[in-house]
Amino acid sequence: xxxxxxxxxxxGMTAIFGMYLLSLILRNKSTPKGVTIIHGVMAxxxxxxxxxxxxxxxxxxxxSLIVFVLAAIxxxxxNFKDISGKPVPKWFAVTHGVIALTGFGLLIFFAFL
Amino acid sequence: xxxxxxxxxxxxxxxxxxxxxxTESESPNKYLPLRDNLDSDVVIxxxxxxxxxxxxxxxxxxxxVVLVEDGNIGSGETGRTTAHxxxxxxxxxxxxxxxxxxxxxxxIAESHRxxxxxxxKVVKTEAxxxxxxxxxxxxxxxxxxxxxxxxxxxNAALKAGVQIEEINHIPGLSEPQSGLRFLNxxxxxxxxxxxxxxxxxxxxxxxxxxxxxxxxxxxxxIVTADGFTVHAKHIVxxxxxxxxxxxxxFGKQYAYRTYVIxxxxxxNILPKALWWDTGDFDSDPQVPPYHYIRMHPYDEQxxxxxxxxxxxxxxxxxxxxxxxxxxxxxxxxxxRSHFPIEDIIYHWSGQVMEPMDGVAFIGRNLNDxxxxxxxxxxxxxxxxxxxFAGMLITDLINGVENKFEKLYDxxxxxxxxxxxxxxxxxxxTLSFLSQxxxxxxxxxxxxxxxGEGRIVDMLEEKFGVYRDKNGQLSIVSAQCTHIKCSVAWxxxxxxxxxxxxxxxFTYDGKVINGPANADLPAYVVIGNKLEKx
Lengths: 113, 533
Hints:
The structure holds two protein chains of two kinds.
Chain A: H1 2-26, H2 33-56, H3 62-83, H4 90-112
Chain B: H1 21-25, E1 38-45, H2 49-60, E2 65-68, E3 84-85, H3 93-125, E4 133-140, H4 148-159, E5 164-167, E6 179-187, H5 190-203, E7 207-209, E8 214-218, E9 221-224, E10 229-237, E11 253-266, E12 273-277, E13 292-297, E14 302-313, H6 327-338, E15 344-355, E16 361-364, E17 372-376, H7 382-397, H8 405-408, H9 418-433, E18 453-458, E19 461-467, E20 473-477, E21 488-490, E22 495-497, E23 504-506, E24 511-513, E25 522-526, E26 529-532
Parallel strand pairs in B: 1-2, 1-10, 2-7, 4-12, 10-17
Antiparallel strand pairs in B: 3-6, 4-6, 5-6, 8-9, 9-10, 11-14, 11-15, 12-13, 13-14, 16-17, 18-19, 19-20, 20-25, 21-22, 22-23, 23-24, 25-26
């Protein structure tokens, strides 16, 4: 279970940075790229931990993993829009956050309940 | 003393505060801005030496050309060069031979030789009074370089077919020194040359528009900032650093600032010639910054000695700790120790795009449509690279086989340059990582004194703030509009320079150098908040 608890911890921190980034987007402020990178790298680490757990254990939180992959694709899209100077659609950023939090909730449910 | 471009509305004249001797002695040509939708065979973006040479060659081949330039003709880097036309290249022939092999190195030398011949021919054909003349060039050893490097260079250059010889005494230097003589080099007044070539283009039916910013560039042509279109079969982007793609060439070339002084020398005591040292290997062993010198007639009493050097990566002076505005003093000290100069009457700086393997990127844009071409990576040999580009691009557009096509292909990638590529990628990442949250309020602005510019962390963002001598504030976002790296203040040219890929902006945010193609968002203070202008 070490991998899954680590994934939960890293995802929790990722969520804090993500919520800060979302608050900036909603307030029409530019996002500090240092935070964007930290958010993205932590999310990637958590995803890797989760993949390792899923392929080595049964039962596994496959639904969470799929939801996080969807969130990651959304994250790449937001980042691309941002660095190419195009406005990030607020609804898309909110949806990205909601999807990621859904995955996080499912994972906590799987790990602790 | 040269003028300074302190007027914020006058940014179209030149890419920075200082005005070069070339721009002051010959005002860059102005044409009317584009106010119509046009169709053409080719549209060229950029009115520097590369764009104008390309327009000339294409018009000469019978094609309809439209050239658009957002400043004036030659108001970018062409007006800030020192205009050496050389086969003595920025990179040593022995290094090029290691990267490209003997056969391709011969082609490299041939391409630069053909560029000098091209300028010679155009000057004669179009009767352009631009002071073009053939001169010899002299390469001598920098104290930090190994003595055998001159012998290696002589041997490699001879193999490449360069006209070169070893000499015991280089003319003009205060201290006797041996070195290499490159024969049949050239020099001219670049802005006068452009004026003459532009006149020839319009005589052939070509159309030129200045004050016209190409905001959107794709396979169909361009859309200007004012909403006019030029629909064309072929598109050539000749903007020093290409402004038409987010990813691509910029990762394979690195931007450097270079500094120039113009000093008076008593008439005719120095020969008309070009001089270069081999570069300061203590300062940067990978890209050793070298000094480059030439003569130009000034008045009845004096000649002008134009010396350049003291280069550093754009937006980054951390290696030596010498800020931009102090580089001229270093250059003056070096020049005084080598040449009998009197007063310094000009100083300006320019930008060089250094390609990862020393050879420019000229041809079809990588990862793009077949009808979009770029000219970039001029290195320190912009005059020859840019004029050669005119010939090569014309052949590519006309479907004529050209033996130089592969050599200059922008899609090439050398495995030997991976280390350099990774090093620069780390630098980009560090620039991103410097952007962290802050919770300072707007009172941070009060800490800026008159004449000071710097990055200010406040209101959860990074801003570039400049307070002019009258106390007037200019506030812009500190995120480059290319891919959002953090810009750095250049107190010498009063500009915001991006250390990642060399984009530059005036102090009030107007873009003056790619790869960025949009202005930095500008802000005004409203109460205790900032609002976008």
